[in-house]
Specification:
alpha+beta; Rossmann fold; D-amino Acid Aminotransferase, Chain A, domain 1; 3 domains; five-stranded antiparallel sheet; binds adenosine-5'-triphosphate; binds magnesium ion
Length: 332
């Protein structure tokens, strides 16, 4: 099978003038090579495509693939992760991971919370702040946690995200609105243990691979899995498989969120315990990082003994099943 690969490389955007923080969510050649090697080892032919721009050019040139392994994060706009799958849908080319509607929704953590609450999946109480005058109207009790509404890789999350009074709330909201040019998400601070839940499979057919507790070392920020903890994870973060009662509760919340949103193939759901010890959804990653060394999902797979190539095979199997079951198209 000819498998195309769509992705966005940090180095391409650095060369185009973006700064380190702006490209934090994008991929390195190590990840592209690792996915490619896994696909080749499974007997596929592989063609590297790149992001939305090169994909548009390739489609216009008449290039086609049996399936595209898509993990392009995109760069511009709040629907940036949806752009490549939307193009592939328009050309009727099957691909891995969720469709544009799920990727556009899930990148916006406020809207995702609202949809999940409608499905009775527990989240933190939250407000979306679009401008500074809205900060004064926030009626949630402190402490609160503030982050950009649509970023990943812990961008915009630091020890300043945890705020205990209105003055600090104003400061961090102003910082988020100005720096990230998008709304700030203000949530009730969840003070308990943090888990990231690895999931394989689509919607109702998904299965939880494992639950990994995320902890900080003495050198890391204790309040949250901050940008600094994530970037310097070897010194600042600790990851441990968890199987106790709260971990099982986290797995249930993650599974319910994955199914309610209709996420496809594989990903991660982040969960934290509230002040009463109840698990609450934080966010879903339907395009989870695939760096074999440093991304949370491959780290979790390593801990449960699932080799990287087997993770990629599981993702491909799930996507190929969907491709086979597609409605036949009438072509003129
Ligand atoms: N309401 C909250 N209460 C306490 N901590 C929170 C809350 N929301 C987020 N955090 C902390 O901030 C971290 C980053 O938040 P979140 O997972 O939403 O960001 P992200 O950048 O999308 O993460 P990822 O790197 O997994 O894509 C979480 O892992 C958690 O430690
Ligand atoms: Mg997260």
């Amino acid at each position: 099978m000819l498998v195309g690969m769509t992705y966005d490389l940090q180095q391409d955007y650095l060369a185009a003038g973006y700064d380190r923080d702006e490209v934090a969510e994008l991929d390195s050649p190590v990840t592209v090579e690792a996915v490619k090697a896994a696909l080749l080892s499974q007997g596929h032919d592989v063609e590297l495509i790149g992001g939305a721009g090169p994909l548009v050019r390739a489609l216009a040139d008449g290039r086609r693939w049996d399936l595209v392994f898509n993990f392009a994060e995109g760069m511009l706009g709040l629907a940036r992760e949806a752009q490549v799958p939307a193009l592939l849908d328009a050309w009727d080319i099957p691909y891995t991971f969720s469709g544009p509607e799920v990727l556009a929704l899930s990148l916006h953590k406020g809207w995702t919370n609202a949809v999940l609450r409608a499905h009775d999946v527990p989240t933190a109480d939250f407000r979306i702040v679009n401008s500074m005058d809205e900060v004064e109207k926030i009626d949630l009790p402190f402490p609160l946690f503030v982050k950009p509404v649509a970023e990943g890789s812990s961008k915009g999350v630091s020890d300043k995200s945890l705020v205990r009074d209105r003055q600090a709330l104003r400061g961090i909201c102003e910082h988020v609105l100005r720096t990230y040019r998008q709304p700030a998400l203000v949530e009730t601070f969840l003070p308990g243990r943090e888990f990231t839940v690895g999931i394989l499979g689509s919607g109702r057919e998904c299965r939880v691979l494992g639950v990994m507790e995320v902890l900080a070392t003495a050198r890391g920020d204790a309040c949250a899995y901050t940008y600094a903890n994530k970037q310097e994870w070897r010194e600042r973060a600790l990851y441990e498989l968890a199987t106790d009662g709260p971990a099982e509760q986290a797995a249930e919340v993650a599974r319910a969120a994955w199914q309610a949103l209709g996420c496809l193939d594989a990903g991660r759901v982040d969960v934290r315990l509230d002040e009463r010890g109840e698990a609450r959804f934080i966010e879903v990653n339907p395009l989870a990082g695939l760096n074999p060394e440093s991304s949370d999902l491959p780290i979790l797979c390593g801990k449960i003994g699932l080799e990287y190539a087997e993770l990629i095979r599981g993702i491909m199997d799930s996507a190929m099943r969907r491709a086979e079951n597609r409605a036949p198209r009438t072509r003129t």
